[in-house]
Amino acid sequence: MRDSIIVALTLVLGILLGIFGRAYIPGDISVITKYLLYLLLFCAGISIGGDSELINKLRNTHPIFLLLPLATIVGTLMGSALSGVFLPHRTTTECMAVGSGFAYYSLSSILISQLKGVDLGVVSLLSNVIREVFVLLFAVPLATYFGKTTPISCAGATSMDSTLPFIVKASGSEFIVIALVHGILVDFSVPFLVTFFCSF
Amino acid sequence: MIEVVIALLAGVLTGFLLRKKPFIAHMHRFTFPIVLLLLGSIGISIGLNDTLLENFLTLSWDALVITVFALAGTILCSYLLWRFILKKKIK
């Protein structure tokens, strides 16, 4: 929660700096952000590769539950592709790139801003924040009406960290490992899918 | 764009090789300041871009539509998987 507030404040501070301090900002900051982005991806990779519990977590999960991240990815991509029909000024792949954030708003919005421009980056940031907030608010009814694994799917990449306590409350503690494994796998797919859909 | 994939995979390999080192468990402390710097710079790009500020409502609408459809698709697939396969494995 504290981190989310710091993130929101930083973003607002940046916007205000852009509006009121433009005389002091050097022309192009995208070169710096590009290398920071690579550093971020490198660090995100270290977290995944260095998780020595990962193999154990996978071993303790019934293989059939590995279908869950797949359902999340397929469902999200189908839905976001369909949304393109209702947004004529957006291409299908742009909508799919935004959907591919799976609520991992920091990485996906930064990647999309870099690859497709800040315009779509802002859409991605808003969309993925909405997705996370949706799970925080509706995890319990989702589990009640659509099955205990549905809050995990909706949480996307955040099912291993920020939304995990809400998932446990809604679905039960027997879903912790499933949520963790789901989060790690979906999280790992984000940079690949976002980059792929931005390449069109 | 291949740089994105290379940076990530290089990280995974480094993490795997250094998995015994205690600092790996605290990577969040390293990544969080980077995330803040990057989001701050996105903020600056947003603030510098007048067209973007004028179109903020349209962008919010786009985000909402994409999210509603993405979540509907996710709920549908996840529900079907739960209903026909996973539910039996839990009991």
Key descriptive features of the protein:
heterodimer; A: mainly alpha; 10 helices; B: 91 residues; mainly alpha; 4 helices
Describe the structure.
The complex is a heterodimer of chains A (200) and B (91). Helix content of chain A is 76%, strand content 0%. With 200 residues, chain A is mostly helical. In chain A, helix 4 (67-86) packs across helix 10 (176-198), helix 5 packs across helix 7 and helix 7 (118-146) packs parallel to helix 9 (164-171). The longest helix of chain A is centred in the middle third of the chain and has 29 residues, at 118-146. The radius of gyration of chain A is 18 Å and the shape is globular. The mean pLDDT of chain A is 90. With 91 residues, chain B is mainly α. The radius of gyration of chain B is 21 Å and the shape is flat. The mean pLDDT of chain B is 89. The chains are: A mainly alpha (200), B mainly alpha (91). Chains A and B meet through helix 1, helix 2, helix 4, helix 5 and helix 6 of A and helix 1, helix 2 and helix 4 of B.
Brief write-up:
The complex is a heterodimer of chains A (200) and B (91). Chain A is mainly alpha-helical. Chain A has helices spanning 2-20, 30-49, 54-59, 67-86, 92-99, 105-116, 118-146, 150-155, 164-171, 176-198.
Structural class of chain B: mainly alpha
Low-confidence stretches of chain A: none
Largest sheet report of chain A: none
* Helix-and-strand structural type of chain A: mainly alpha
Largest interface, counted by CB within 8 Å of the partner chain's CB: A-B, 95 and 75 residues
Helix content of chain A: over 70%
How much β-strand is present in the residues of chain B?
Answer: under 5%
* Rg of chain B, Å, rounded: 21 Å
- Report the span from N to C terminus of chain B: 45 Å
Number of helices of chain A: 10
Q: Please provide the count of β strands of chain A.
A: 0
Total helix count of chain B?
4
Dominant shape of chain B: flat
Uncertain residue segments of chain B: none
Strand content of chain A: under 5%
Average pLDDT taken over every residue of chain B: 89
The helix-strand sequence of chain A is: HHHHHHHHHH
- Chain-averaged pLDDT of chain A: 90
Determine the oligomeric state from the structure.
heterodimer
Q: What percent of residues of chain B adopt helix (DSSP H or I)?
A: over 70%
| Rg calculated over all Cα atoms of chain A | 18 Å
